[in-house]
Amino acid sequence: MDHLACFTPADLAGRTPPDLGSYRWKLLAQGDSWFSNARAKLNAHANLLQELVFKSNTVAVNCAGTGNALSHMVDLESSPEFVQLLTGPGAPVWDGVLLSVGGNDLIAAARTPAHNWNGEPIPLELRLLRRQTEWGPPSAGVARYFSEPGWTTYADYLRANVKHLLSLRDQGPSAGKPVFMHCYAVPMPRPAGAESSDELGSSGPWLYPALKAYGVPAADWAAVSRLMVFHLAQLLKSMAADKAAFPGLFVFDSTAVPLALAAPGSTGISGDWHNEIHLNHSGCFKIARAWSEHIEMVLEGKHLIPVPTGRKGRGSSNS
Known about the structure:
Layout (H helix, E strand, L loop, with lengths): L1 E2 L1 E3 L1 H4 L12 E7 L7 H6 L8 E2 L3 E5 L17 H8 L8 E5 L2 H8 L37 H22 L9 E4 L24 H7 L7 H21 L7 E4 L28 H19 L4 E2 L9 E2 L3
Parallel strand pairs: 2-5, 3-5, 3-6, 6-7, 7-8
Antiparallel strand pairs: 1-4, 9-10
């Protein structure tokens, strides 16, 4: 098993660019801080790509690069290197695209306050948490704090962005190639921020102050976090299952990987977590090893299943 070889667009443009043709699988990567190569972030917490391993020699050109990673899915549109390498003249034919997206958008939606800067209420469909006067009955469990109208807005936004990304893929030489996304792990809301400001425009913590501001009881914080991350996982998996609307999308369910939770109230590295929302090296190792196997099975065609007689082509599962 070999670690994924990672390069940046700058490496490709350098005086001695890597020979991508010497690798069996060539991947293009883009994403949030889970993929970021920024030195400050690598010093602070792990990069999921660094822990991917494959039986066949595999390379990725990582457009998360050394600058700020994506803070929102729509930033893909303003990522010229990624778009150029995916669709531009002379772009390579990639065997697949690796994406780490949606998590920052979820955190940003959860952090949307109940009122705007001049005290006017922000509509329920534009936030993920409910004010105390909007809470449902205790019988609803932690779902009583959760804004389903806000979730519908977020889900529509994510679906539209992923569809747009798949359309970009199909405009270039890698049309129809698999796009790999991962779900996220469930963070423990706690006062553990980053060493410096991150791509969300904050040094954190992120969920902890939001849940405090909305008055959610501390005993329910972990369950609220789990509810949101599992909603996102189900959304991503449902998209991957809809092969007509999201062709070639494959989603790995990171929530199924057992991780050591951070201790409630801890302020630094705890369990498999570096801070409130970023994994440390042990956490990345656990998820990446499982995701690697999923990716390689798809690349080798082992995900393919027979299609009933009378239908053209071959179908595939997304797990």
